[in-house]
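Q: Sequence in, structure out?
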Amino acid sequence: MDSLAQLFEETLKDVYYAENAILKALPKMVKKTKNPELRQAFEEHTEQTKGQVRRLDEIFKIIGKKASGKECLAIKGLIGETEEIMSDSETPEVLHAGLIGCAQAVEHYEIARYGTLKAWAEQLEMQDAAQLLDETLQEEKQTDEKLTSLAISTVNPDADMGEDSEESEDDESEGVNAASMDEEAEDEGATTSRKKSSRSR
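A: Exactly. Output:
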């Protein structure tokens, strides 16, 4: 690469690959999600992402190139982490918190990429491309804000409550065991007393 125009095109291919990879990952996340609000957020973002791919198709036309992607190692790594969370989470509540964290990591990557592409498009005086990129950039920011709100209001507290609930159950179990031990001690004491009384007679 020896020009900003070439750098723009190569980064566009990177994002094109990323968006299509995300489109494949989102339905799996929807399927795993039990939280209705989170599921809806992922479903809405799936539709948004389809629109974002169409915008990228338009930008490729603007620069006179065929729409194509090149492997994006960053997004492959982020999707790999998401799959790991889906595999390793032992409760729905923890899974939901983990999925939001992974989804926001993807959003932040996309926000950085689209912000950069928009700035380059403006520098290259491609105003139509810059406008399309800005539309997607605003959508990504809104999605990130929505996920943050959902995490703070319900998902993170639910995941935290799950831990408290387990601790509470353990405490109750310990209390039951302690009570049983006290009862056994009382029974042994009563038995010993009866034996002593019998000998005294």
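Residues 68 and 116 are 19 Å apart (CA to CA).
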